[in-house]
Design brief:
Radius of gyration of chain A: 20 Å
Strand content of chain A: 15-25%
Strand order of the largest sheet of chain A: 3-2-1-4-7
Structural class of chain A: alpha/beta
Number of helices of chain A: 10
Shape of chain A: globular
Number of strands of chain A: 12
Distance between the termini of chain A: 19 Å
Oligomer: homodimer
């Protein structure tokens, strides 16, 4: 009998699904809208219905499914328990248990960034490694820590919340979390544009960015690649703070590899080079540095990691 | 047949031993000098001899010993391999395997600060917890990370090197490691005295410390407890940097508890209070903070942790 598993990545606007073979090949992906109305009470039912209809379409029975993995956009404990998930409206819920009750198939849950890190370890930028730290540089900055091939969830599901590490306590502007000087304020897409805008305001030098009415992180990196001095300064700011966090994380959990994903990572090697430069600078203690590489799975990292969670159990 | 185990804590000047019952009670402790001459080639032989004569004294045979744990003052991989141990002169050595060959008893090795953290989890300030982070504030600052009751050694044996996390890149003075602004420069015994001396130089205010020709971290804390303003400033500096590292570590591995040990921790609650204050300040992300407590085993943490390593295998 053929064996399959399903990886689910729950986001604030859509839920992504991947059907995988038992060998871990992605056979098909699909998605539905996330109904966050009424404290997200319809989300798990919608997911169960979507999976049930896909199983019908493919003529799959319950015993064809090894299991289902699900990534949640908020702190998730290792037993799947979610105390609060602001993005979905959930409170005091175990989505893994609920979904398992609805479908009669084993379900395993983790925080979405942690799950994405597992995906990148399995089939992405971290392939071949067992101790992987992922930074996801998107609208915000997410993080995931994989130790010995397994997600580190942490005592309260907060492990790998690397975007909210304080890197500059003197920052006058507040982060969304209320703190000042979180990594996210310099290394997210919005952060890169914010930093560049500040550099432009404080300098009288010319810059390609001055010709744009509004600019994004991509614009900053594109200009930096062409040698635009002020854009390069913004890139250095990102590298300095993210590289220092890599150094700090290396001295805490000592991983094999750092993987950089999210929209900002489309900038390519200019990004990993500048992070790597500062990571090395801040760890003189050891000669041996681990690589800083680009993520490879893009938006599929979540469904890959979720599938891997199911296969590992 | 009665069962025992032995915990060994190798330091740069002495090797401490503890004989434990199979139930984990410390029955006897003793120590020998560390012979670091000739690249530390005599150390393991001396340890084996000392254990063998203790076994003879106690009428113990090999099969009375469950195993031996040994803490090494340098990066130690999870299989016991030590690439370089500057303090002992060792290079490219597996002390666990060598000692096992000499004594015919299972031997397990770990970094001394990690092993001490395991000891504090077992019978000290971290008792009752499974995810423990220890800071040892002595001449330098050591650290140890215990996850799910086990030492996290890290890919290169560097996990838990928390004293060399950069907390102030603008620091003009260099740390022993070559970096600038390591936690160790503010939170070690020498660091506290250094910071206080700097505060005294830069202020014209009166201070009890000014009456002393030389002063130690203990003098600084004693004065601070009596309300000495400049001494309190030095304590705040320690709290700010160590509290921020606790916040960073919490967002990386999310432990149950932080344990503060080493000579500086004799200062007592004034120390854990100031660390806790800043740790909470730098983690607005979550309402739930974990406790910051004092270590309880003093110099015995190493032999306790080493014994626990042997009992766990």
């Amino acid at each position: 009998m053929d064996q399959y598993c399903i990886g689910v990545d729950v986001g604030g606007t859509s839920v992504k699904f991947g059907l995988f073979s038992g060998e871990g090949d992605l056979l098909e992906r699909w998605s539905i809208r996330t109904r966050t109305a009424e404290k997200g009470k319809y989300i798990l039912g919608d997911i169960a219905e979507s999976i049930a209809s896909k199983m019908e379409e493919k003529n799959l029975r319950r015993n064809n499914l090894i299991g289902i993995g699900i990534g949640i956009p908020g702190p998730t404990q290792s037993d799947g328990y979610v105390e609060v998930c602001v993005n979905l409206g959930w409170e005091d819920l175990n989505p893994a248990k609920e979904l398992q009750a609805l479908l009669g198939v084993p379900v395993f849950a983790g925080n979405d960034a942690n799950v994405a890190a597992l995906g990148e370890m399995w089939k992405g930028g971290g392939e071949g490694y067992r101790d992987v730290v992922l930074f996801t540089l998107g609208t915000g900055v997410g993080g995931g820590v994989i130790l010995d091939g397994k997600i580190l969830a942490g005592h309260r599901g907060l492990a790998g919340e690397l975007g909210h590490i304080t890197v500059n306590p003197d920052e006058p502007e507040a982060c969304n979390c209320g703190n000042h000087g979180c990594l996210e304020q310099y290394a997210s897409a919005t952060g890169v544009a914010r930093v560049a805008a500040k550099i432009l305001r404080e300098s009288s030098k010319d810059s390609a960015l001055r010709g744009l009415r509004r600019f994004s992180a991509k614009d900053v990196f594109d200009a930096a690649k062409k040698g635009d001095e002020l854009s390069l300064q913004a890139v250095e700011v990102l590298g300095k703070y993210l590289g220092r966090v890599c150094a700090t994380v290396a001295l805490t959990v000592d991983p094999d590899v750092f993987v950089i994903g999210g929209g900002v990572s489309k900038a390519g090697p200019i990004l990993t080079d500048v992070i790597s430069k500062y990571y090395k600078f801040y760890t003189p203690l050891t000669e041996k540095k681990v690589p800083v590489v680009l993520a490879e799975l893009g938006n599929d990292a979540g469904i890959y990691g979720a599938a891997r969670m199911a296969l590992d159990h």
